[in-house]
Design a protein that fits this description.
Protein name: ABC transporter substrate-binding protein
Largest sheet: 5 strands, mixed
CATH architecture of the largest domain: 3-Layer(aba) Sandwich
Family: Belongs to the bacterial solute-binding protein 3 family.
Shape: globular
Helix content: 25-40%
Order of helices and strands: HEEEHEHEHEEEHEHEHEEHHHH
Number of strands: 12
Distance between the termini: 12 Å
InterPro entries: Bact_solute-bind_prot3, Solute-binding_3/MltF_N
Organism: Streptomyces roseus
Keywords: Signal, Transport
Structural class: alpha/beta
């Protein structure tokens, strides 16, 4: 029996603008291997960029119809609020403070992560406490400084966070010895480590000092666009759990209710695959980073991802 669906106006504000423009404006990082990084050939790659491609495939029928907007960490939400981006997928942590204070909504978690430390293998650091009193490279506009204070303060310890606008600047300050460690989400640190001249001379401490659920964000004024982005994310997870064919058959009929047609799910999965495909391609063994899925496994495999039913 065909599912009962509600048809809403196809041309809601953001979706109409995206279609008139012919491109999705996606705010991404200025360059983090595994999440959003521009290759020498000009193509943007990474988990975050594949999420943007999935949304473009659903909304425009073309996963490459994306206008990439690399932004500084402290401009990720401002780009949405100012109307310079339709979607932010930029290693951005979902917090109550951000959603309460800014005119944005988080549409869903793209990657569960935690704040970590990249250090030199020969420095003798075995845990965060060993870094007390040292200068640490961080990104300006991130939650890192707050996380460091929350971890070190109660222990009677302190560090000196040194903020940089650009990921490359932060990594360079660590690489040249100006800072004893580079502090960032552990997934992003895996990419940073891979970009160093001798990755084996550096390692990521086996400790996370915070919870960092990275998420896709949209402007709060368009609930229809919010709904569209949220269900694109849920489709990727459901397709891993149910198989792509089963997930598409359940999701396609609901397309008109979110401003799409009845082939939208087919396009998304053809463009980027399931969440497992996206993760493996950008962060798993196939990427060269080999970041264990850990919390990013489905709940059936001990992770936290639990896809919402598509029926």
């Amino acid at each position: 029996m065909r599912a009962c669906v509600v048809t809403r106006p196809a041309a809601t504000a953001t979706l109409r603008s995206v279609r008139v423009r012919g491109a999705l404006r996606a705010a991404v990082s200025q360059g983090i291997h595994g999440l959003s990084l521009r290759t020498p050939g000009g193509r943007w790659t990474g988990l975050d960029t594949d999420i943007a491609r999935a949304v473009a495939a659903a909304a425009l029928g073309d996963p490459e119809a994306v206008d990439w907007r690399p932004v500084k960490a402290d401009d990720r939400l401002a780009a949405l609020e100012a109307g310079r981006a339709d979607l932010t997928v930029c290693n951005l942590t979902w917090t109550m403070g951000r959603e309460a204070a800014r005119r944005v909504l988080f549409a869903g978690i793209t990657c569960y992560d935690g704040e970590g430390f990249l250090v030199r293998a020969d420095a003798g650091f075995t845990g965060p406490a060993d870094l007390a009193g040292h200068r640490l490279a961080v990104h300006r506009g991130c939650t890192t400084a707050v996380n460091l204070d929350a971890w070190y303060g109660p222990r009677g310890l302190s560090v000196e966070p040194v903020a940089y606008d650009d990921p490359a600047e932060a990594l360079a300050a660590y690489a040249d010895g100006s800072c004893a460690a580079y502090v960032l989400d552990r997934t992003a640190l895996a990419g940073a480590r891979a970009g160093l001249p001798s990755p084996r001379d550096h390692h990521i401490l086996p400790v996370s000092i915070s919870r960092e659920p990275m998420a896709a964000a949209v402007h709060e004024t368009d609930p229809y666009w919010f709904r569209l982005v949220r269900w694109v994310l849920q489709l990727l997870l459901a397709a891993e759990y149910e198989t792509p064919g089963a997930a598409a058959r359940r999701a396609n009929p609901h397309g008109p209710a979110v401003g799409l047609d009845e082939r939208w799910a087919d396009r998304v999965l053809a463009a980027v695959g399931t969440y497992a495909d996206v993760y493996e391609r950008n962060l798993g063994a196939a990427s060269g980073l080999d970041v264990p899925r850990g919390l990013n496994r489905l709940w059936t495999a001990g992770g936290l991802h639990y896809p919402v039913p598509l029926h």
